[in-house]
Every structure is written in C-alpha cells, then in structure tokens.
Design brief:
- The chain is an alpha/beta fold and about 230 residues long.
- It has one domain: P-loop containing nucleotide triphosphate hydrolases (Rossmann fold, 3-Layer(aba) Sandwich), CATH 3.40.50.
- About 40% of the residues lie in helices and about 20% in strands.
- The chain has helices at about 25-35, 85-90, 110-125, 150-160, 175-195, 195-200, 205-210, 220-230; strands at about 1-5, 10-15, 60-65, 70-75, 95-105, 135-140, 165.
- Strands 1, 2, 3, 4, 5, 6 and 7 form a seven-stranded mixed sheet that branches.
- Strand 1 and strand 2 form a beta hairpin.
- Helix 2 crosses helix 3 (about 110-125).
- It is globular and about 50 Å long.
- The chain starts with a strand and ends with a helix.
C-alpha cells in the first residue's frame, strides 16, 4: 500500500500469480473488458510463442473517495514461464494481496504446487510475510476434463485459510468473484494497518462499491455481495 497524504493518493497493488497458461491473463482481459473506458487504464500485454505473458499486464482502476483521496487499484500478472522467476519476484514487490490462479485439472497438481512454493519463496525474498499478505486461490478451467470435484475444492478450503473460488475464466465465471474476494481482503489488511475508515473516511462497503462502480457485474455473484455489504454498513 502506498499512501501519499500530500498528494491525497492511495495506491493498492494486487498481483495475479500462478503457472503459465493457468488463466492469469484471461482474468485481467475479462476484467478490463467489463470495465467502462473512463474507469480503466490501458491493458499492457506482451505475448510470446511459449507463454501468453512474458512480463506483466497492468490494469489501473481509478476512483476518488468522499474525503478527496484518489485511489488507484493496480492489477498485475506475473510471467508463468519457469525461466522468468526474477521478473516474478520484481512484480511481486510491495503487493497488497495476491490472487493465485491454479489449473483445476489433476494433471496440473505438480505445477500448481511448484508455483505455490515459488510464490512463498519470492514473498520471503521481498520481505513479505505470507501469513500477513492476503491470498485468494482461484481454481480455473473447471470446464475441462479431469478437474478436481467440488468436494476436493471444499477439502482445499478446509485445509487452508485462503478463500478458494472455482472459475472458468474464458467464460467469465468466477473472475469478478475472485477480484472481489482479493480486493476485499486487501482493504481489510490496509484498514488494519492505516485506518482507512477512520482516517480517510473510506469504509469497506464504500471502497468495494467504488472499485466495482464502473465494472459490469451482471451475471455474477458480486452485485449481491455489494448489496449485502451496503445493508450491513453501520
């Protein structure tokens, strides 16, 4: 989190991490497509013959709080190729939250586990505490053969503290739900650290409503979640 009181600016960084071709780029492309032009920056993508993203994608979402602060939510992906670990480490620096995009197929278990370990290793290298940085796990490609069952996903939920969301990113299923979950956890951690509600007048419900204000949430669970948060707002 970068909080600049002089410029009245708060920058939130979310990194999408995971094996190559697990769906990180697809997630960001869909978020970008569902965001109104005035609420998004340019989506930067570098494609190669052996991986869809060589370096990273950057998607800033801008809005202003009632207290006059400009909030920038920046979404990054890391390159999935094994040889680009140094780039992954650099992109991960100062991350406020991580969306780990895994492939649901059982044949991908080894790659998922390797990149999960790699994530934690690179967090340590960057001085990030994996117990403190919020992480959401998305199991993507639920439409393909040989995927984990819902019961297996539930078992994964019970084993760890991270929220687990099933997805078919190419169809948009689970994409905004993953974004909502990771942004919500990022807010809670930042509020704990900097008192966003107290010092900036930026509540959790208000923050999430602003982030998703220019994003088309139709056909997703996010609209209902936002409505419920507004009802619970004191």
């Amino acid at each position: 989190m970068q909080l600049n009181h002089a410029q009245r600016e708060l920058t939130v960084k979310v990194v999408y991490y995971g094996p190559g071709l697990s769906g990180k780029t697809t997630n960001l492309q869909l978020i970008h497509a569902r965001t109104q032009t005035e609420g998004r920056g340019k989506l930067l993508t570098v494609e190669t013959h052996d991986d869809r993203t060589l370096f990273f994608d950057l998607l800033p979402v801008f809005f202003q709080t009632k207290g006059g602060y400009t909030v920038k939510v920046k979404l990054f992906t890391v390159p999935g190729q094994v040889i680009h670990n140094a780039t992954r480490r650099v992109v991960l620096q100062n991350a406020d939250a991580v969306a780990f995009i895994a492939d649901s197929r059982r044949s991908a278990n080894q790659d998922n586990n390797a990149y999960w370990a790699n994530l934690h290793e690179n967090m340590r290298e960057n001085g990030l505490d994996a117990a403190q940085v919020p992480i959401v796990i998305q199991f993507n490609k639920r439409d393909l053969p040989d995927t984990k069952t819902e019961e297996e996903l539930q078992e994964t939920r019970t084993r760890g503290r991270e929220p687990v969301i099933g997805a078919v990113a190419i169809r948009g299923e689970g994409v905004l739900e993953t974004l909502f979950a990771v942004i919500q956890l990022a807010y809670r951690k930042m509020d704990e650290q900097a008192g966003l509600a107290r010092n900036l007048g930026l509540s959790e419900a208000g923050f999430l409503a602003q982030v998703f204000d220019r994003i088309d949430t139709s056909g997703t669970q996010v609209a209902g979640w936002l409505e419920q948060l507004q009802k619970e707002e004191p």
